[in-house]
Description:
The structure holds two protein chains of two kinds. Chain A is α/β, with parallel strands linked by helices. Chain A is built from four helices and nine strands. Chain A folds into two domains: 8-77, 2-Layer Sandwich (GMP Synthetase, Chain A, domain 3), CATH 3.30.300.130; 88-148, no CATH class. Chain A is 23% helix and 30% strand. In chain A, strands 6-9-8-7 form a four-stranded mixed beta sheet. Chain A has a three-stranded mixed beta sheet with strand order 3-4-5. Chain A has a two-stranded antiparallel ribbon with strand order 1-2. In chain A, strand 1 (16-17) and strand 2 form a beta hairpin. Chain B is mainly alpha-helical. Chain B has one domain (8-204, 213-235): Ferritin, core subunit, four-helix bundle (Ferritin). Chain B is built from ten helices and no strands. In chain B, helix 5 packs antiparallel against helix 6. Classes of the chains: A alpha/beta, B mainly alpha.
Amino acid sequence: MVTAAIxxxxxxxxxxxxxxxxxxxxxxxxxxxxxxxxxxxxxTLIPTYSGCPAMEAIRSDIAAALAEHGYExxxxxxxxxxxxxxxxxxxxxxxLIETGIAPPTKFIEASCPQCGTPAPRxxxxxxxxxxxxxxxxxxxxxxxxxxxxxx
Amino acid sequence: xxxxxxxxxxxxxEVLKHADDNLIIAHRLSEWVASTPDLETDIAIAxxxxxxxxxxxxxxxxxxELEGLGRNEDDLAMxxxxxxxxxxxxxxxxxxxxxxxxxxxxxxxxxxLGLWEFLSAHPDPILAGVAGKALMEARYHWRFSSSWVARxxxxxxxxxxxxxxxLGVVWRFADEMFEDQPGLRxxxxxxxxxxxxxxxxxxxxxxxQRHGGRLGIHTESLGHLLAEMQSVARSHxxxxx
Lengths: 151, 241
């Protein structure tokens, strides 16, 4: 039984990325479609990185969020067109900066999310999760994550 | 979904061989986790292994669907025997020292750059989609392996010696990558040879090339790898967690 007035589109889009909890998956740009028929919702997601372990958690969080409001769902994965970091919304990029993560850009165009200084050093192109690289600010010396550009 | 003219069996074999390449090299690379020279390298290697595993999972799931026999991605990964795997021999080679692992990935990453670009225009939309995604990741893999080749080859006397020896070990497995797609060879040559030149490394001899992986005829290493990779699934069939 559907119990609330919140639309399934909003429910799905508001699910958080477990690896960047401030970021909603709607802003991450991975929700391809949400189709509602009665109390059944069909969700199509596009994977970010091929091996991203967060996708499993995101699926179960979507199912739980919908179930809480009386919806059943099926979740499928689409591969074309492939997700790129250009699909992250402007709000998503802002959330990343506020979380201390530099939004996706080329390494040479990155700047420190703490002090804004350009031209950080690339410490490693592979960081704490599949989507991040590890940088060090050349001015404030703070290490920070950069959301890797994929396009 | 299928374009006319693509036989499901042909597409199944095509998808499965790329799935196997990625699954087997992912497992091999993951053996390094917690044993690499430094923390950044450890994280990089874990990430790269995860990328390959992710590609393998997407392709295995699709292969299982194409096969239509009720098997799933786990059945294909965990309940096939050595002779049923059709991965490239290169992918199953033991890690050896760090230089040998880097050499293996240098050859393979260069191959995958060309392969994914080629397959991203494949008439099958799912294979093309997975390839398009994998291409973005392969660029990172290539930068990692080729920069290590340059660093080791042009580094100390010992690192040069080891990098040279490592290339000698893996080079026999280069031709096999192009036996199905000879058109990808020249692009690979143009990627790989300049890096070797920059790293002061000679081109290894091209003789004594090994083949057989695509026919399920493997080196002695694959059986050992599978014994470990499949042990939990086979000891506890149907286990869920």
